[in-house]
Specification:
Blueprint (H helix, E strand, L loop, with lengths): L2 E2 L2 E2 L1 H8 L27 H9 L4 H24 L1 H14 L10
């Protein structure tokens, strides 16, 4: 990761500031809530048995995992779609430095 006068690379900054939030196990959607769809999944039998033995809500865990995968794919797609702008901004900073850098007090 490059560093310009104490600032992170613009690609990293854009990446983090536009990263979608991923749901956590503490924020699951309610079962039977509007917009929910019953779905059949094929999962490894041993994994399901161990999850149940440990008291893991398999549906909730699957939903959180799928939500994380969707968020990751959206993030990758956003970076791909905005790659030209990110590279252009990085090239500008490399050539001219950070805009308003002269006003930094640190």
């Amino acid at each position: 990761m490059r560093n310009y006068n104490g600032h992170l690379d613009i690609e990293w900054t854009l990446h983090m500031s536009h990263a979608p939030l991923t749901p956590t196990a503490s924020q699951p959607a309610a079962v039977g809530a509007p917009g929910r769809k019953p779905t059949n999944l094929s999962l490894a039998a041993g994994l399901v048995a161990e999850a149940r033995a440990l008291g893991v809500n398999v549906s909730q865990a699957a939903e959180v995992g799928i939500a994380a995968a969707v968020a990751q794919r959206r993030q990758e797609r956003w970076l791909q779609e905005n790659q030209a702008a990110i590279h252009s901004s990085n090239a500008y900073v490399e050539e001219h430095g950070l805009p308003l850098a002269r006003y930094q007090a640190f």
